Amino acid sequence: MKNWQTTTASPEETRCLGGLLGEFAEAGIVVLLSGPLGAGKTCFAQGVGSGLGVPESCPVTSPSYTLLNVHPGRMPLHHFDLYRLSMVDDLADLGYDELAEGEGLTLVEWADRMTGELYASVSVLIESLDGHSRRLTFEASDARGQELLDQLAGSWPGCGQSRA
Ligand SMILES: Nc1ncnc2c1ncn2[C@@H]1O[C@H](COP(=O)(O)OP(=O)(O)OP(=O)(O)O)[C@@H](O)[C@H]1O
Ligand SMILES: [Mg+2]
Question: How many other CB atoms sit within 10 Å of the CB of residue 71?
């Protein structure tokens, strides 16, 4: 499956979906999150953190000002937010390539702010629909991403929700 789309009806559901991704992800995977302000990218990232077992003492919050937060977990979570990134060099300064090629899970909010394309196994676009509904469109760019999407789609809906 190259693309997969679903909707969530609440922040909890978006976190739940992120949690599944965090549970299934293999070390070294890069996931790009895009969508407008307030779409739910950080909310999804919080779910990924819980799926990776990031301790509550190290909560996943928006790295808008720091550009990068690293959280411990079953593997490290490298959480980037490029909203305020203007120069490609800044990304190099943050050690992006080393982290993205390393043994953690790299999650990038506002990757579309980069002038050049970042390589990722999975890209996720989050869009607001009516009220609290969000549409999440996942796209896989390689075999690992595809495997991850297959696992996500196969176990969703999860977290106890029953969705007609
Ligand atoms: N289904 C939903 N999924 C995710 N967030 C939702 C949903 N419904 C409502 N929300 C609300 O939308 C907001 C999403 O905020 P969040 O910080 O995750 O967005 P963001 O995309 O990271 O924004 P930014 O571009 O500022 O970083 C939160 O206030 C959350 O409670
Ligand atoms: Mg955010």
Answer: 22
